[in-house]
Amino acid sequence: MLSTIPKSWNVKLKPHLFCPGCGHGITFKQLGFAIDGLGIQKEITMGVDIGCSLLAWNFLDVPTIQTHHGRTTPLLVGYKLVKPKRIVISYMGDGAAWGIGLQNIIHAAYRNNPVTVIVINNENFAMTGGQSSYTTLPGTITPTSPVGKSPELGAGFKGPELIRNVAHKDAYIARTTVTNPIHLLSTLKKAILAQKENNNFALVEVLSICPTNWKTGAKASLDMAFEMEKTYPIGEVK
Ligand SMILES: Cc1ncc(C[n+]2csc(CCOP(=O)(O)OP(=O)(O)O)c2C)c(N)n1
Ligand code: SF4
Predict the structure, then answer these.
(1) Domains of the chain by range and CATH?
(2) What is the pTM of this model?
(3) Alpha-carbon torsion 148, 228, 171, 25, what sign?
């Protein structure tokens, strides 16, 4: 029988802290299955950032470090230098990755540091109340865009495409979505293997849902996530 709970989850110590229906929880389920499937739980060190990713602290039964504003990536770059056998995963939101912490991913990708970065793009600053972020699409109503985000502020920030332009040629860069758990799982596995087998930098942006701040039910959340794919296409970014 297929297990519905990844073995690498720390459920006894830390039950699910995300809101019901949150894309972070969906991603962590597939990340757990990826770690189980590759048999690497004992090799993983996890880094979580500020934002709702912080709620994943101690979520997996692996050593976990927390820093702020995208600095999880350079922290793990340094950690990996002194512990090269560890597989390091840097996990954060789009605010941390594509806003305040952008410089951190750029340089790790440029140097091809062997780190796997996972960015949850839920189109808002979720932990602080759903304010508009760089990935928020034009017209979206948020507490900081009460009449809809102005198109003059941009048509949606494409972090993976930006990173592709500066990254080392061997870096693995892709986008996936919580609406397709099979694609999500296989993309996460590829990003982990890029580091484990070939010592390459890897980045996965996950299109995610935030029902609490979006104020959406199940169907409307999924509809919005499908809509995101028109601006942020899933697949490998070449
Ligand atoms: C300079 C600065 N501005 C604002 C904040 C407040 N802050 C903490 S978490 C957060 C939102 C993070 O959003 P994101 O990285 O997208 O993660 P999410 O919560 O959406 O998963 C903000 C704005 C801060 N800590 N520092
Ligand atoms: S606020 Fe949004 S991103 Fe944060 S845990 Fe709740 S649903 Fe998830």
Answers:
(1) 23-236 (3.40.50.970)
(2) 0.96
(3) positive
